[in-house]
């Protein structure tokens, strides 16, 4: 594993707050995934690739955008690995690498919807301001 891939792997783990090393490779997450047939890499493979530092393959994969974020994999995981959170962290990393997710505080008022919960606004700001 190259040092840049190792750093990226550690960054994804930090962003997600998940310990992918808890995965026992049972495949239940992939078995329940409704987007399984559309993905090049499946949820259990995402977890394994992050653990093994094969991040560059993930960053280039269309599979990260095909995840529905339905959290079916999270519900099925017996070890609370939460592959969907890891996939979301990879997406965020890709956006940050491209410099496409910067949101300044001045932009927020124009994006507000009166029906949007305050928690969603704070969460989006944290996510898109790094």
Account of the protein in words:
It is built from nine helices and no strands. It has helices at 3-16, 28-32, 43-51, 55-60, 63-66, 72-76, 83-98, 108-111, 118-127. The radius of gyration is 16 Å and the shape is globular. By secondary structure, the protein is mainly α. 56% of the residues lie in helices and 0% in strands. α1 (3-16) packs across α7 and α3 crosses α7.
Q: Alpha-carbon distance between the termini?
A: 26 Å
**Largest sheet: number of strands, sense, barrel closure:** none
The rough form would be described as: globular
Beta-strand level of the residues, as a percent range? under 5%
Rg over C-alpha atoms, rounded to the nearest angstrom = 16 Å
**Total helical segments:** 9
Mean pLDDT, to the nearest integer, reads 84
By helix and strand content, what is the structural category?
mainly alpha
Number of strands: 0
Ranges where pLDDT stays below 50 over 5 or more residues in a row are none
What's the SSE pattern? HHHHHHHHH
> Helix share of residues?
55-70%
List the SSEs and their pairings.
Blueprint: H1 3-16, H2 28-32, H3 43-51, H4 55-60, H5 63-66, H6 72-76, H7 83-98, H8 108-111, H9 118-127
Keywords:
130 residues; 56% helix; mainly alpha; 9 helices
Structure, briefly:
The chain has 130 residues and is an all-alpha fold.
């Amino acid at each position: 594993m190259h040092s840049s891939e190792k750093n990226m792997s550690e960054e994804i783990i930090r962003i997600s707050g998940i310990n992918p090393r808890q995965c026992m490779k049972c495949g239940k997450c992939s078995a329940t995934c409704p987007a399984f047939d559309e993905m090049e890499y499946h949820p259990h493979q995402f977890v394994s690739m992050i653990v093994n530092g094969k991040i560059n393959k993930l960053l280039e994969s269309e599979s990260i955008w095909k995840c529905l974020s339905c959290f079916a994999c999270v519900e099925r995981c017996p070890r609370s690995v939460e592959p969907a959170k890891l996939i979301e962290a990879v997406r965020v990393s890709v956006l940050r690498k491209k410099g496409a997710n910067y949101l300044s505080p001045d932009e927020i008022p124009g994006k507000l919807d009166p029906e949007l919960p305050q928690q969603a606004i704070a969460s989006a700001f944290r996510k898109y301001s790094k």
